[in-house]
Description:
The chain has 233 residues and is of the alpha/beta class. The protein has two domains: 2-125, Rossmann fold (3-Layer(aba) Sandwich); 133-227, Winged helix-like DNA-binding domain superfamily/Winged helix DNA-binding domain (Arc Repressor Mutant, subunit A, Orthogonal Bundle), CATH 1.10.10. It contains eight helices and eleven strands. It has helices spanning 15-27, 38-47, 64-73, 89-98, 110-125, 159-170, 178-186, 196-209; strands at residues 7-11, 31-35, 52-56, 80-84, 102-105, 133-136, 139-142, 147-150, 153-155, 217-220, 224-227. The strands form three sheets. The protein has a five-stranded parallel β-sheet, sandwiched between helices. A hairpin with a 4-residue loop joins β7 and β8. The longest helix is centred in the middle third of the chain and has 16 residues, at 110-125.
Amino acid sequence: MKEHKAKILIIEDEKKISALIRKGLEEEKYSVDDAFDGEKGEQLAVKQHYDLILLDIMLPKKDGIQVLDALRSANIDSPVLMLTAKGSVEDRVKGLDTGADDYLVKPFAIAELLARVRSLLRRRKGAEKSATTLTIADLTLDLVARKVIRGGKMIDLTSKEFALLEYFIRNKNKTLNRSTITEHIWNYNFDTGTNIIDVYINHLRSKIDGGFPIKLLHTIRGVGYVLKDHKSA
């Protein structure tokens, strides 16, 4: 399969973990490079193209969030899977907001990591590039300029909030449950019990509906969420 030729960078300071990940990836025929600190990892990611980057948060010299922020600022759009020992929702949200595509909490099974890798690579290859502008009511989302405007007001969204809004607009007036949202935005269902989706929905709602008399993003209690236009609200 073509995806088995993908080039992957591991940025992980724990050499035993890095070696285990490398072994698992190479057994699946991926091409693998590794770095054991944030500075070296960033240098490699800037200098070479990688189809996927596995990035630990706790790193010497430069932590994973700083590395990710630098890569996204440099317009490096390789999918990033964050590896973290931190368990709090806010830590995960911070990584995702900075531009991570998914996260995996240590300790993890190599089989689970490989499943995430395959999912991210599939998503990258099948990314939608159809319409350049999406609209609902008085809100416009520009996929090229990465801008959101409602009622003439510019709305500043994080990368994940933007992806979430795009998914809602593509499915406007359709109720989406939490598992469907996580599957399409992060390619994986988060642990049951985590409220990360609620955190994102609340952030997005406050930004696109705050100060506007007509609300677009609605909660369907016990079911999920729906983005409705004026006519369907």
